[in-house]
Amino acid sequence: MQVSLKRTAFGLLLVPALLVPNVMSCNRRPTASLTVRLVEYGIIRPAGPFVRHTDPNAAPGFTSSGPGNSVFEQRTSEVPATLGSAFGIRYRIEGIPKGQTIVVEEIIRHPPMTRPDGTVVTEERTRNQVTSESGSVDQKFFYRLGQPFEVVSGDWSLAVAVNGATMIDQHFTVGSAR
Questions:
Q1: Do the domain assignments include residue 4?
Q2: Which residue, 119, 146, 147, 152, is the most exposed by fewest CB within 10 angstroms?
Q3: What is the dihedral of CA 102, 106, 107, 108, to 10 degrees?
Q4: In this structure, what DSSP letter does residue 150 have?
Q5: What DSSP element (H or E) covers 12?
Q6: In whole angstroms, what is the distance from residue 83 CA to residue 71 CA?
């Protein structure tokens, strides 16, 4: 009986050992590991020009992009709850293998916001595929309280996920006007 137990134990060890090279060769992973870091956060002065992109998942019904001229005016996580206030983050992703595409998702979480059509929104997501020849990407990501229904006080979060893993989750308190 002891002999068969030893053979069984050896067989259980041998089979996984034989499979490891095959599993490793099927799952090609990037040679460089990605790092994502928060560079700046706070109140922003938006500077365009901006291009609007229709996005029914965004609270106002659109997102916008621009050349990156917006300026961080104050490093703070306290934001006045006033129409026109803008706050956000700047982040950097490094270690992107040349020619490899990564998925970057920017996530906004906020207290319940009721759109003019009556729908309630608490989260907004924008997903982009990014390829970098230099191995890094610098991004600004911000939110502007542009419509009266968007001015909701409470805990807001701007998060960044790369390839499905949340790498940054910066919280802001949107409160009464200063």
A1: no
A2: 119
A3: 180
A4: G
A5: helix 2-26
A6: 18
Q: How many domains does the chain have?
A: 1
CB-based contacts of 120: which residues, under 8 Å, 6+ apart? 112, 113, 114
* Mean pLDDT across the chain: 79
Q: Which residues contact 160 (CB under 8 A, 6 or more apart)?
A: 36, 89, 91, 104, 105, 106, 107, 139, 141, 166, 167, 168
* 134-155: pLDDT as tens digits: 999 999 889 999 999 999 999 9
What does pTM read for this prediction?
A: 0.73
In a domain? residue 22: no
Its domain, for residue 107, covers 35-175
Is 7 or 91 the better-scoring residue by pLDDT?
91
Instruction: Show the tokens assigned to 100.
Output: 């490899």
Instruction: Report how many helices (DSSP H) and strands (DSSP E) the chain contains, helices first.
Output: 1, 11
Read off the CATH number of the domain in which 143 is found.
2.60.40.2390
Task: Compute the distance between CA of residue 21 and CA of residue 17 in angstroms, rounded to an integer.
Answer: 8
Q: What is the dihedral of CA 146, 149, 154, 158, to 10 degrees?
A: -50
